[in-house]
Amino acid sequence: MNIHLNQIISKYKAAKKANTLAFGNAQEVVAELHSLTLSEKEEAIDFYREIGQDLLELNISIANYDAKEFEALIKDKKRRNKIKRTGRESKDKSTLTDHDKFTRFSNCLINVIPNLRRYVLLHFQNPDSHRVGYLVLHDEHSRPPMFEKIQSDLHPHDCFVKNIAHFQKDICTSKELQATEFFCLLILSPNPTHEFLEGCDFLDQMDGYFETIEQIIIPNISNPLDGLTAVNDIEAIKEEIRYLVCIDMTNAELTPSEEKIVKKLFKHVHTIQYKKLGGGFSGSKVFEITPIKYANPTTKYVVKLNDLSNIKLKNEADNFNEHIKDVDRDYGIEIVVTERYRAVKYNYASDDGEKPSIPLATYLKSSFDKGEVTFDTILICINKLFSIKLFDVWKSIPQLVEIHMAEEYRSYVKFPAILEKIARMLNLSIDDAKKLPLVQNYYRIADIKIKSYKKICHGDLHTENIFVDHDNDIYLIDFGDTGKHHSLIDHATLEASIKFRHVPRYMPTEELILVEKELLSDSTFLTSYEIKSSVRADIKDFYKIVQRIRFLSKDYMLYKDIQLEYFLSLFMITLRQINYPDLNQLYALRSAEVLAEEIVKRMQ
Question: CA separation (Å) from 281 to 57, 254, 353, 411, 592?
Answer without folding.
Answer: 48, 18, 29, 14, 21
